[in-house]
Known about the structure:
Helix content is 78%, strand content 0%. By secondary structure, the protein is an all-alpha fold. It has one domain (2-93). The longest helix is centred in the last third of the chain and has 37 residues, at 57-93. The model has no long low-confidence stretch (mean pLDDT 94).
Amino acid sequence: MYILLALVAAIALGIALHYALPHRATRGVVLTPGVAALTAAAVYAALTWAGWGEGNLWLWLVTLAAAIVVATAVTVLLGLTRARRDREFERRFRLA
C-alpha cells in the first residue's frame, strides 16, 4: 500500500520536472511524470523484494532519487533528439 505514496510523490516530482526542463513544447505532458512513476514503481518493488522495509528512509530516498534521475535523463535525451531531428527536417526541406 505504501507504494502508492511513492508513486504519487514520483508523479508530483515528474510534473515539476516537466515544467523545469527545456523543450517542453516538443513532448507530451505525461511523458516525464509517466517515466518517473514507472521508475519509482520498479525501484520500490525491487528494493522491497530485497528486504528493505517501508519504514526504511533509504527506500524512499533511493526510489525518489532514481525516479528523478531517470525521468530527467529520458526527458532531456528525447528533447535533444527531437530538436535535432526537427532541425534536420527543416534543413532538408528548406522550411526554415
